[in-house]
Amino acid sequence: MAITDWPADERPREKLLAHGPQTLSNAELLALFLRVGTRGQSAVDLARSLLERFGALNRLCNASAAEFAAVPGMGLAKYAQLQAVMELARRALAERLDEGNLFDSPAAARDWLQLRLAHLPHEVFCVLLLDARHRLIEAADLFRGTLTQTSVYPREVVKLALARNAAAVILAHNHPSGAPEPSQADKLLTHDMRAALALIDIKVLDHLIIPAGGEPFSFAEHGLL
User: Fold this and answer.
1) Are the C-beta atoms of 96 and 136 separated by less than 8 Å?
2) How far apart are the first and last CA of the chain?
């Protein structure tokens, strides 16, 4: 049955307009993006099959062009539209970070970092440099590749923090493997960062691990800072 044949209060668009986007399921939201289904499938049916194929909404949104276009009914044009939506979300969250104190909206920082890092196939170490009022000065991707506990990382972060006159930092890096828990190397790296930055009176507010397809891990929330 086509969505247009559904009762009005069950159609995703009408449901969103009447009750807000938060009332829609992932499949319903995705159906609004897809707009149309395929032969024998409504847009909602197609959305459900996509979510089942990729296993999670995050994995679907961060799929490669080849993976996405390989799905019947999808293609590079739809992939480009999806990536445009993702980039709009990143930029909207970045504007929220620029508006004020990061501790006033920690979820915005976490969401932005997740959008920025979760889809990457390689590890990236990111530093959010903050002023004395915890407003964002700059977000910098410093290192790429497998992270290890070496003296170069604290030295480079200290150099950048001094150059930007930062008063505090939030550290973050992604785990492309999807494992959310910090490794022993992650813990040693965090310890060394804190010690090095403490020498110049710069506080490490948190270290976030952003796993592919999972929820971020906060060192601060787990009492590891």
Assistant:
1) no
2) 55
